[in-house]
Amino acid sequence: MPPAPPSPDPAAAPPPTVRVAGARLVYEHAVLFDDLSFDVAAGRITCLLGPSGVGKTSLLKLIAGLTPAGEEGRVSCDDGRPADGRVAYMAQNDLLLPWLDVLGNVTLGATLRGEARDGARARRLLAKVGLAGHERARPATLSGGMRQRVALARTLMEDRPIVLMDEPFGALDAITRARLQELAVTALKGRTVLLVTHDPLEAIRIGDRIAVMAGRPATVDQAPAPPGAPPRDLASPATAALYAELMARLMAAQDQGTAA
Amino acid sequence: MSANGDRERLGARAARALIVVAGLVAAWQAVVLAFAPPPYILPGPARVAATWWHRHALILENAGTTLTEIVLGLLLGTALGVASALVLARFGAARRWLLPLLVMSQAVPVFALAPLLVLWLGYGLASKVAMAVLIIYFPVTATFHDGLRRVDTGWLDLARTMGGSRRAILLRIRLPAALPALASGVKVAAAVAPIGAVVGEWVGSSAGLGYLMLHANGRMQIDLLFAALLTLAAIAVALYFAVDRLARAALPWQAETGPGD
């Protein structure tokens, strides 16, 4: 193996495992979770499943360093460096800025940090997500699926080892969602990804690991990992069995939630 | 399709405006015919039109003065309002100390200040521009500041994870996001700026439509007063639509969300 030159780019280091410990969230006098711990495996896609309102998004924001009022917790990485500044964030809403064209949105990070825009790389990433030729389009002229592709390109442009995604495909139709899931699995390979979703099928299709967040105060439990490499075929009997198990867990959690 | 639709809408709007104006003129003529008031109380539209035509050099010259005051006041007031809103949005201390002051300042009737402004700044252009600035400063500052504060929190979260400084987020995200709000503020300003200029002229001046109206009123030249008044109204309406068009052209993404009707 040739000796690697010392890289000034922190993103070039192997992605870390992200560890959340002692997380606590109080929302309108209700304790949503307390002393919660959770590991996001290095270089894997972890799908975090859970019923609505359980605090998945808040947990994601804690890791992203966007701590909402009433939330606290420790976020660390197994390589000893902070997660802050090594995180890319993608939400259900594409969050495209309507006054910028596609290229301007993809290079937003550089603009905000006052760095030079790498237009060539942005174009390559746009081609990768299937949007070559749309660089100058305004977001309002694009379909929902295309907009979310731009958001994915913007996330990749940041080139961070940790990627946090909050229901990134939740607002898309089934076919567009399937295509984007495949694209995301390929494009995010090798990064530490935490993807929040309420859809067990999505978790089975693209998760290397599946975690279920449930209860009040909520805890996070690992579910069995789906067999094979993502993106997975949903028609196989193994995935069907896993789907049934996940649904049962989620429904039990929801019933418990309503009974409490 | 949208360009055609826009043109059609514009045509329909112009037609409606024309019908409304024609209706008002007809009503005015009807009142004059029905009650036959002496022309020094209420002249008819035909007489006012004739006066406008005979005295148009005088009217246009004074309109030029008033228009200069309005435009200078609008530019200066908008610039001051934008700068104040940015300072208020960027610095918490400025917000805590200056915002109550700004709101309280609105309790002082601007018109009551007109004689003072004339005393301090003289009979010329400066006191009228200052009057227009005073009257538009608050709506511009308030609407733009509101716009800067009401930005999608998702955008701000995203910008923070990207490592944007507070300053960069203000200039690259909050500011463009607040431009539509600013446009509303400037439209209001364009509608009220003529009031400021004319009040300034009433209190003390030797030129301008306000001066001309006061002068004509004193000499019972009510037809000239009406001609000047209508010219002022035309300036105010033209200014409003000019600002509206300018805002649409400058904020093309805004048009995509569609008009309210």
Give a quick rundown of the structure.
The complex is a heterodimer of chains A (about 260) and B (about 260). Chain A is of the alpha/beta class. Helices cover about 35% and strands about 25% of the residues of chain A.
Helix-strand blueprint:
The complex is a heterodimer of chains A (260) and B (261).
Chain A lengths: L17 E10 L2 E11 L4 E5 L6 H9 L6 E7 L9 E4 L11 H5 L1 H6 L5 H10 L15 H15 L3 E5 L7 H14 L4 E6 L2 H7 L2 E6 L4 E5 L13 H23 L1
Helix pairs in contact in A: 4-5, 5-6
Chain B lengths: L1 H34 L9 H10 L1 H35 L1 H14 L4 H12 L3 H25 L3 H9 L4 H38 L5 H10 L3 H29 L1 H4 L6
**Topology pattern of chain B, helix = H, strand = E:** HHHHHHHHHHH
Q: What's the tally of helices of chain A?
A: 8
* E-strand count of chain A: 9
Structural class of chain B: mainly alpha
Oligomeric state of this protein = heterodimer
Cα distance, first to last residue of chain A?
58 Å
**Beta-strand percentage range of chain A:** 15-25%
Mean pLDDT over the full residue set of chain A: 86
**How is the biggest beta sheet of chain B arranged?**
none
Helix content of chain A: 25-40%
CATH topology description of the largest domain in chain B: MetI-like fold
Residue stretches of chain A low in confidence (pLDDT < 50, at least 5 long) are 1-8
How many whole angstroms does the radius of gyration of chain B measure? 22 Å
Secondary-structure element sequence of chain A? Answer: EEEHEEHHHHEHEHEEH
Count of the separate structural domains of chain B: 2
Poorly predicted segments of chain B: none
